[in-house]
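Sample intake — Ribbon-helix-helix protein, CopG family
Collected from: Rhodobacter capsulatus
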Amino acid sequence: MRESDDMTQHRLVTLRLPTDLIAKIEAAARLQEETPAELIRRSLSDALREAPSVVQKNEMAVITAAFDKAQGWLDLQAKLRKAGFVLRLEDERLGLHEWPSDRFVLWIEEIGHSLTDLMLQYRAPFPGALTRRAGLAPREVGVTGRGRHPGRAA
């Protein structure tokens, strides 16, 4: 049990599930070397963490407008930051994060965009992507004295 789990309140929930689904859950839990309840909790947490519904409708309209009107990467980042968001490059995907907390919100594919399409549209790679690929910037980026994450955002 993780330390943070000690402070989490729990409530017993009963679900009526088809027996074939229960068998799949049990088999997957065995493969992961965890209990079926742990697998279900983790799966639900993961699914809800990445759900695009965490963005309110009015915020989504602002995000969509930023993507539609931006003239380049820096313009897009400026428009998103004005709305309280920022793009972060994680491996080969762009994630939308809250600004300035840097909390992950969703992947840009979930709102109809892709890194490849944006690179073609802006005729440039995402800022910092080339230095990362060339090995000039570390993959595990620490926080600098100024509180910024170097090489992760425009």
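Post-analysis note: Residues 141-148 have pLDDT under 50 and may be disordered.
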